[in-house]
Design brief:
It is a single chain. This protein is α+β, with helices and mostly antiparallel strands. It contains twelve helices and 14 strands. Strands 4-3-2-7 form a four-stranded antiparallel β-sheet, with no helix packed on it. A four-stranded antiparallel β-sheet has the order 10-11-12-13, with helices on both faces. A two-stranded antiparallel ribbon has the order 1-6. It is globular and about 55 Å long.
Length: about 400
């Protein structure tokens, strides 16, 4: 939105989102949110404490964040603290108000369809309705007839079950691995929290919720394509090889927009209604099947953004340096990645369970590692380290630290 000039970084959030000005937040600017310096890192820490399912209500979360108060000891723009959950609601609210569209609608328009990653990236998996005939093994999904093998052909059937890496969990409990953490910090409570996360996030209602900071369901290649586009100045990357199975874009997919209507049951057939979320993607628009096994985009050179200084903005350097906290780990929207010599080489982000994605701008390199077993990140670091070593490109220092369990990928 910034690239397309629909949003100004130095604009007050209240100009876009009037309700946000409550409780002294009227001076918070868009760049404070993107740089994790708004002081709202713990804004909704008590929300959902009695009923955790409350965080699945997107509109209520936006209302709560608009009415919240900044941390009293945090001066605006003077302290950078990772907004681990509130970042998603803050950015989501700004995006919806600035665009006049729903968050997931923008996600579809700006990234999913242009990058040809339909069916491989969701923030909140979409529900749908299909009717299946168990005698003929045919399903009618949102009005489209397709084969049915006795398994719901929606996103739920493809999602991995989140679990805990018990070996890595012990690292969170052992203070020897966290010498810089204050003694008053209850590491046992952190470990207990981590063990509850898989149970909570495996729930279908939570998987369907819009939680941008913590509820992305995606393949590694979808995230890698996203970072590849960012690394290459916004240019949409070429399709994956036909050796990558299943073929990119071949998953059934339907977004939540426009609202779905129930399809009618086939007449004269015994059927059963099941909730699912998918629809055959039958459009070949923008694609051309090549004889060499690749699917070629006909709109070569198209971009998901066009601002030539967008990298400087993401990194918070050059013209954007005064909008970020000096020498902080975050630029505008992303975590800065540094090489061993201290130079900034790119940007990305890692999740609490060890999954990661980032790009190296100079080397036009992007990678993503996606895990379904929540871990300290050592396995992820070894994979990234091996790839970087083979390609002879610098390894971001955060992965050097985690390989020997010195610290987790994200704190």
């Amino acid at each position: 939105m910034f690239s397309h000039r629909k949003l100004k970084l130095e604009e007050n959030v209240t100009k876009i989102w009037p309700e946000f000005g409550a409780n002294g937040k009227d001076i918070i600017k868009v760049h404070h949110v993107l740089n994790h310096t708004s002081g709202l890192h713990n804004a909704l820490v008590e929300f959902g404490s009695e009923n955790p399912m409350e965080i699945a209500d997107w509109d209520e979360c936006l209302r709560q964040i608009a009415m919240s108060k900044p941390e009293p000891e945090t001066e605006l723009g003077q302290q950078q603290v990772y907004h681990y959950l509130t970042f998603g609601w803050l950015c989501g609210g700004i995006i919806e108000r600035a665009s006049g569209k729903k968050f997931q609608e923008i996600l579809e328009e700006a990234f999913i369809r242009p990058l040809n990653i339909e069916g491989e990236l969701y923030v909140g998996i979409p529900p749908g309705t299909f009717y299946c005939n168990y005698e003929t093994e045919v399903a009618v999904i949102n009005g489209i007839i397709m084969p049915f093998n006795g398994y719901p052909p929606g996103v739920e059937s493809r999602l991995a079950t989140l679990t805990i890496d018990e070996y890595d969990l012990r690292k969170y409990q052992n203070r020897g691995y966290h010498p810089d953490v204050p003694t008053t910090y209850r590491l046992d409570q952190i470990a207990e929290l981590i063990t509850t996360l898989p149970v909570f996030f495996n729930m279908l209602n939570i998987r369907r919720a819009i939680l941008p900071a913590t509820n992305g369901h995606c393949s590694a290649r979808a995230v890698a394509r996203y970072y590849a586009a960012l690394a290459d100045g916004g240019v949409i990357p070429p399709p994956h090889s036909s050796l990558s199975k299943p073929l990119l874009g071949s998953h059934t997919h339907i977004p939540k927009f426009p609202p779905q209507e129930k399809s009618k049951k086939p007449k004269g057939k015994k059927s059963k209604e099941v909730t699912a979320d998918s629809k055959e993607n039958t459009s070949n628009k923008g694609k051309d099947a090549g004889v060499d096994g690749y699917t070629r985009l006909t709109n070569n050179g198209s971009k998901i953004f066009s601002n030539p200084k967008i990298h400087d903005a993401f990194l918070g350097v050059g013209d954007y340096e005064n909008l970020t906290f000096p020498n902080g780990p975050f630029g505008l929207g992303f975590k800065r990645n540094k090489a061993a010599d201290g130079s900034i080489i790119g940007y990305g982000h890692s999740g609490i369970g060890g999954s990661t994605g980032f790009c190296d701008i100079k080397n036009r390199f992007a990678i993503s590692v996606s895990l379904n077993k929540m871990s300290y990140g050592a396995t992820t670091a070894k994979i990234v380290g091996l790839v970087c070593s083979e390609l002879n490109i610098p390894l971001p220092v955060e992965f050097s630290f985690v390989k020997d369990f010195e610290k987790p990928l994200i704190r």
